[in-house]
C-alpha cells in the first residue's frame, strides 16, 4: 500500500490517518507487528522523528502497543478498532453532508445520489 502524502496538511497528521486507515481496513491485523520506525519512515519517505510522533499518538490512543524488546504491535481490541472505523466513517459522512448541503441537496437527494453512484460503479 502506497503512502500518498500531500502538502496541504501536516505530514504527521497524514501519517496518523494512514496508519489508522490501515488498522481499521484490515491491512494490519490485530496483533500484527509493525515495521520498525526507521523502516516505516523510509517506506513513507518521511523523517523518522515524524513517524515516531505518529506512532506515539497511536500508542496514546491504544491502537498500537510497544513491547520493549520486540517492537510495536497492533491492538487486539477489536471493539476499539471498530469504534475507530466508525469515527472515520462519521468524519467522511459529515464532510459529504456539509458539501452536499452547500450544493442544495436534502437528505433524500443525498441518499439518491449515493444509491445511483453505487449502481453505476458496480
Short description:
This protein is mainly alpha-helical and 122 residues long. Helix content is 62%, strand content 7%.
Provide keyphrases for this structure.
122 residues; mainly alpha; two-stranded antiparallel sheet; 5 helices; 7% strand
Overview of this structure, please?
This protein is mainly alpha-helical. It has 5 helices and 2 strands; from the N terminus they run H-H-H-E-E-H-H. Helix content is 62%, strand content 7%. Helix 2 (37-44) crosses helix 3. The model has no long low-confidence stretch (mean pLDDT 92).
Q: Write down the Rg.
A: 17 Å
Please state the overall shape, judged from the principal axes of the Cα atoms: elongated
Structural class of the secondary elements?
mainly alpha
Report how far apart the termini are.
23 Å
Average pLDDT across residues?
Answer: 92
Strand order in space, largest sheet: 1-2
Helix tally equals: 5
| Beta-strand percentage range | 5-15%
Helical content band: 55-70%
User: How many beta-strand segments?
Assistant: 2
Please outline the major beta sheet. Answer: 2 strands, antiparallel
Order of helices and strands: HHHEEHH
What low-confidence regions span 5 or more consecutive residues with pLDDT below 50?
Answer: none
Amino acid at each position: 500500500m502506497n503512502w500518498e502524502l500531500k502538502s496541504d496538511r501536516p505530514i504527521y497528521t497524514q501519517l496518523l490517518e494512514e496508519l489508522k486507515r490501515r488498522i481499521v481496513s484490515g491491512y494490519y491485523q490485530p496483533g500484527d507487528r509493525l515495521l520498525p520506525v526507521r523502516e516505516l519512515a523510509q517506506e513513507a519517505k518521511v523523517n523518522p522523528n515524524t513517524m515516531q510522533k505518529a506512532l506515539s499518538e497511536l500508542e496514546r490512543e491504544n491502537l498500537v502497543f510497544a513491547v520493549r524488546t520486540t517492537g510495536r504491535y497492533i491492538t487486539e481490541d477489536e471493539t476499539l478498532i471498530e469504534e475507530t472505523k466508525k469515527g472515520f466513517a462519521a468524519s467522511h459522512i459529515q464532510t459529504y453532508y456539509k458539501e452536499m448541503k452547500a450544493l442544495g441537496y436534502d437528505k433524500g437527494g443525498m441518499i439518491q445520489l449515493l444509491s445511483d453512484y453505487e449502481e453505476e460503479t458496480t
